[in-house]
Each structure stands twice: as structure tokens, then as C-alpha cells.
Amino acid sequence: MNNGIKKKIRVGIIAGGWSAEREVSLKSGYAVYKALDKDKYEVILWDIKEDLDVIVKKRSEVDVIFPLLHGKRGEDGAIQGFLNTLGVAFVGSDILASAISMNKKISKQLFQANGLDVAKGIYIEKEDILNQHAIDELKFPVVVKPVSEGSSFGISICYKKEELEQALKEAFKYDNEALIEEYIEGKEITAPVIGYKKIDVLPLVEIVPKKGHKFFDFKAKYRSGETDEICPARISCEQEKKVKEVAKRAFNAIGCKIWARVDMILKEDKVYVLEVNTIPGMTENSLFPLSAKKAGMRFSELLDKLISLSISAYGER
Questions:
Q1: pTM of the predicted model as reported, rounded to 2 decimal places
Q2: Which one of 3.30.390.50, 3.30.1490.20, 3.40.50.150, 2.60.40.10 gives the CATH number of domain 121-182?
């Protein structure tokens, strides 16, 4: 007999970790912890770097885990494999989709295989000699980025060949393989995608870094006031329809579930896919909550939906 008292859903939030995005992850975890309705949920916040053994021991005491680990060992399939092994429901994509989305080389190949447009680029490993012929086929400026990293760590824009060596050194601090791709000048648009089986795209966000930022770098992303985040994006209805369709196709190409954020460049009527983020930031400055708010969803309602979808999907994982 429960005396009419509805049992609370037990949620374990995992944040922190070991990646370059540790501090952002902790902020995301704390923001979600604060926003979850304590009348509906019993919530535990774990820093996996400190609480790994506790998570293993306490796994049966939660109904669902909400991983908010950004970057390596968070979005690359590692934590998803760990949670799969523990046999617990968790929010977000499975191992394979997470690993693919984190690897810009493989994800770009999948986007192309699914008929999506991407920037022309080449790949170079840390010990390789730079292929000057391949470089000559690219148009400057170019963007240099680590193949597997997030939050714009290790990214540089090069306007001439002489800048490449230093840019590659910066990229190789974060990964053993780098991507050099042509810089596409256009509107930077991000599309929050949510759902399981039936997916929806929330209002698009146009990203305009302020003076002093060549692109949407780490400071522009996470320092308040460094970027104009315009929602809905200032594009035509036809462009909006096209961008949302591309976002859905990119989400499905990777095999994502529950939620993700698709970053794109809109140049005239052509949409270039940059990447898919399977664990978007959830801080007070983050784009996913901003878009949800524009769609009429409070932060707590967005979290309700993500948790509900994840619990429903768990039986089919």
C-alpha cells in the first residue's frame, strides 16, 4: 500500500571526468541537478573522476543515469559502454553513435554517404609529413581541428600556408590526427534535435561571435556576453525547412537517439554539416535550453522529456 504517494524517479547525473571539457561538464551537471523537479525526482550528482566506484556500487539505486560528460571518455562511447555493461538506463545515444559523432573523420564520411554537404578537407596524422599537393588543392582560409575533440579545443583558422605548422601543433595537443578543411563563410546555425523514433527539431539558433572571436571558440561558447545567440535564426522559411531537414538526416546518419545538437553552416541555400554533438552543453549559457525555451519548454520540462524518452527507449537497447 503506497497511500497514494507516487514514487519518485531516481536519477543519477554523471559529470566531471578527465577530458579538456571537465569544468564545462561540471557546470552542466550542476545546472541539471538544480533544474530537476525534486517533487518528481530523487537526484544524485556524481563526478565520475572521483566517484567511479560509487557509481558501480549504487547503480541499482537509480532508475536512469543522465551522462553530462563532454569530450573524450564522455561523448566518444566510453561512458555509454560502461553504462551498458552496468545494465542501467541512460539518457542519450548508444556506444556506436557516440563514438562516430566524436570522430570528425568517420562522421564526415557518413554525412557524405548520406548525400549531405560537408567542407572539403584532408586528414594528417601526427608523424606524417604534410602533403603540399593536397594542401594546394584547398582554398585558404582553412580550419585546422583535432579529429576527436569538442568545445572548439585545438581549433585554428589559417589564412595562409605559413600558419599551418603552428595550427597543427595546437591540434595535436588534443589528438594524434588533425583535419584541415576549407573555411566556409556563412551563417553558423545549430539545430537541437530531440526524440526517439519520431524526432523533432527545436527552434534553430544562429550563432554570431562578437568582435575578437574569429569563430565560435571556447570563450565565445562559455563566457556570458561573448556571442549573440539569436533564436529563432534570421533565415527564410524555406531555408529553415531545409536546415531542419538536414539536421534530421545528420542525426539519423550517425544513428543518434534521444537528443543531439547538429552544427551547420548555411551559405546561401546550401547547408554544410560540421558535426553532431551527442551530449550538448547544459549550462546557463547553453544553446539547447535556449532553443527549448523558445519552443515554450522550461528547462525542467526539457529534462522531463529527455528522461521520459530514455526510460521508454531503454527496453529496446
A1: 0.90
A2: 3.30.1490.20
